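Why does residue order matter? Because the sequence determines the fold. Keep that principle in mind as you read this record.
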Amino acid sequence: MSGTWNAWSWDADPEAVRRDVAAAHERFTDSGRVSGPVRTVVGASWLRSVLHGVDPDTTLPRVELTGHALRDHRDAHPLAAAMPLLRRLLVDVSPGPQIVAVGDASGRLLWVEGDHGLRDSAEGMHFVEGANWHERSAGTNAPGTALALGHEVQVFASEHFSRGVQRWSCSAAPLHDPVTGAVLGVLDITGEHHLASPQALALVRTAAAAVEMELRALRLSGRLPPPRPAPGSFGAPLPDAGDGAHPATDAEPAPSPGPVLRVLGRGGAGLVLDGRDMELSNRHSEILLLLARNPRGLTGEALGARLHERDGSPVTVRAEMSRLRRLLGPGLLASRPYRLLRTPATDIDEVRRHLAEGAYGRALELYTGPVLPRSEAPGVAEIRDGLQAEVCEVLGANAPPGVLLAWSEHPEWRDDPRVVTAALRSLDPASPRHAALRGRLRWLGR
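Structure:
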C-alpha cells in the first residue's frame, strides 16, 4: 500500500512516467478501459470522471462564487483562521514557483495565492478563486480527488483526466476539523512537474497537519468558535456515542482534555483517555492509529485491508473491535463505519507541528523512533514511511548541520540511508565527518 498516493517513487524517471501514463490516458479515452502503468487511485478516478460526465477535451470547472458571495463565504470559513500560517509555510518561503490553493469541503477554491506568473497561466483552466475543482466538476485532479477519497494524493501531468490540465502537476491533502474529524476543505500546491515529487507530498502533508494543530490551538484558546453542528455547515460533526449526553452550555464546565495517542518508537501505543494511562497491544495500537488517520471512518473491509497484507476478514476485524471497545469503555468507538468519536492528538502531530514551526531540534527530541516499529500492517507501514520521508525532506532542506549530525548518530536512525544522506549533504566534502558518513553509506549498500 505504501506509495499508492505518490505519483512516482524516489528513484523513478518522471519523464518516463509521464510518457507511459499519457499513452495509457489515450487508450482509456478511446476504449474506456484502464491499462498499462496507471496507479489504481488514478484509474479509479478516471472511471468516476466518466460517470460524472466530464469531457476530457471540453470540460472546465464551474466558477460558482464571485464578488461578495466569495468574500462572505471565505470570511466565515474556519480555515480563514489558518491562512496566516499557510502563507508563512508555503507562500512566503516557497522553494520555487508554485500556486497554493485552499478550498472548502465541496471543492470550491477559496484562496489561490503564490507565483503571479503561474496564477495568470492557470486562469485559462479556471484554477481561480470560486471555481469548483471537485472530481464531479473537473475530473481527476489532486484537490478534487483528495476530497473524493479523504486522503492526500498527487496527480502528475497526464494523470489529469482533462487534457487542458495535463501540463500541470499537483499535490493535495484534505483538512479536517481537529475536534470532530469532519472535512473542512483541502490544501493544494500546483505548478510544474516537481510538485508531484515525493518531497512535495511530504510538504503538503506536513502543512496540513500544522493547519489542524493550529485550529486545535485556536479552539482551546477560545479564538476560534466551536464547530457548527448543523448539517450542511462547513463540516458537520460525527454522530455522538448514544450515551445520553447533552450539548454543553455556557454554564457547564469545560470539557476534559481530549485523548492522546503516542506511537513513536513504541512496540505498543500509549493512550491517555479520560485521565487513564493505558498501554495497548500491537493490534489495538494499529487500529487506533489507523482510525485516527481516517477521521471519517473505515468499513470493516477497508480497515482489514490496512491491517492485513492478505487476509483482512471483516469477522476478524469485528472481534478485535469488540475487544477494543470493552477495553476503552463507551464514548470513543463507533461503528458503521468504524470511527473515533473523539480524534486523539498524536505524537506524530507534535513532530509535524515542530517541523512546520522550524523547531527542528525539538522535533527530533520527540521523534524517538519509527511509528509502531514492530507493526507489519500495510496501513501502519505507509504512515511510518510517510513520516520518515517528511522528516528527511524537511530537515535535509532546512536544518543546520549540527542537528542533522545529531540525528545521524541517534541509535534509531544511524543505519537509515535517508538520514545519513541528509547529514552528508550538509557537510563540507573535505571534512572528516563527511568521509565517515560516506563510509557508513557504502556499508549500508548505497
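Confidence is low (pLDDT under 50) at residues 229-255.
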